[in-house]
Amino acid sequence: MVDIARPSQAGRKKKLRILYGGAGILAVLLVTLGLSKLKPAAPTVERGSVWIDTVKRGPMLRQVRGLGTLVPEEIRWIPAETTGRVEKIVLRPGTPVKSDSVILVLSNPQVELDALDANWQLKAAEAETVDLKVRLESQKLDQAAVAASATANQRQARLQADADQTLSKDGLVSDINLKISQSKAEELTTRLELEQRRLEISEEAVQAQLHVQEARLEQLRGLAALKRRQLEALKVKAGIDGVLQQLPVEVGQQIATGAILAKVTVPGKLKAELRIPETQAKDIMIDQPAVVDTRNGVVKGHVARIDPAVENGTVKVDVAFDGPLPKGARPDLSVDGTVELERLADVLQVGRPAFGQEQATVGLFVLDASGREATRVQVKLGKSSVNVVEIVDGLKEGDKVILSDTSAWDAHDRLRID
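Above: the chain's sequence. Below: its structure in token form.
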């Protein structure tokens, strides 16, 4: 029996392995390429967990809202006019007061002593003034008497000189006697002029001394009035009719000058002090209509003042009320206010999204016709209000839009709505 040699199978098997390997690699590449071109699977969102609104066209009322409190229009802060110790508290916060109601009593022995001393100094100065007037009047009378005597002597001497001159013409009086009488008359005339001038100067001196004394007297009167007022201020009074709002002191407490002792307000005169976000406050103007919710009723009003400064990202806006406040309205009561900015006649609008300021472009998910899938669309916003915003571009009337916070799906442009 003869063995027949078979052809070698090694080469064929090698070729098959290479062929199968290449086919496997090609298959992997094709699968990878196909997968890379597939869109990522859209995450599924429950319909009840998102807020969906429909784009509509029509009139739009622009408003801004802010929280705030009721504050009195008329407030009187009562400072301490002098140092003292709280001796007695007569009234407590919440008590109605009159302008002359004593709220508390301070004590300060030095103020009492100073008031007594200033009063005695004033009385002493008043007595000195009376004495000075009497003395000056007496001096004035003495000088007037001297001037009157000089006047009489001058007249007598002038008459004598005239008589001697007449007699001298008849030779009855010698020339020497005539000259003597004339000289005496001239001397007394000069003395009379001096005495009259002295009387005038005396009157001016009297007025000057009286003015000095009156000035000193007025100074002491002012000092006595100040000390008396400080003494009276130890009995702290309300100053206005209203309600005692605050009393930040206690019995026995030492008070410094200028320290606040009490706060009195007029309860019937209140205004709302709203805090509006600075980004929304730019369009607020004086006299714009506003509505304030006091939690016990809604009251209409108007913007009365806008604070020029920004504090903690908000602007203070004061709203004055156009009507009476509901019962229970009191200072520091929390309120919610809305200011009407303008009315737009016909605009495309939708509910205000969770994120996105006015005049900005944001990405919003818009539902398709089936309502089962939403696609992200870039939307340009216009003017905004409290609950709605104007649509400038990117949406059309009838579109359904997800307004909830979608930041959790920022990596996806599509959502499945279940």
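The mean pLDDT is 84.
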